[in-house]
């Protein structure tokens, strides 16, 4: 299976970034141009939960929505899911993503590293790696800093 990842440094504690990512109301307001709505369509956010992401106009030409089945949750640290619906599923199978939030040593109360990691297999050789998905996810994570000031 192929993989790619990226990370951004955030000026907020890992626990705060984690809470923001897991809260559908908050995550839907961080940057509506990238992510217009998130909702748990089945379950409560634990393993087996289905979460729907409706993407915003900035990425809608690539992906309009993504249905994700949560596979693993490390509370306060990471969530891993398998994409089970939406356009990404039509390009890759499997397509598994992990978002993690790791405190910066010595600055645990102030900063964290937010990481996006994907494991995927293109359905055909002509399908490119999911660079656009990575770039959109990292751009979205960078918005946590600005948003948390008003949150």
TrEMBL record:
UniProt domain Bet v I/Major latex protein: residue ranges: 3-151
CDD domains xref list: Bet_v1-like
SMART domains: Bet_v_1
Classification via Pfam families: Bet_v_1
Listed InterPro entries: Bet_v_I/MLP (IPR000916), Plant_def-hormone_signal (IPR050279), START-like_dom_sf (IPR023393)
Family indicated by similarity: Belongs to the BetVI family.
Protein name in the entry: Bet v I/Major latex protein domain-containing protein
Organism whose genome encodes this protein: Citrullus colocynthis (colocynth)
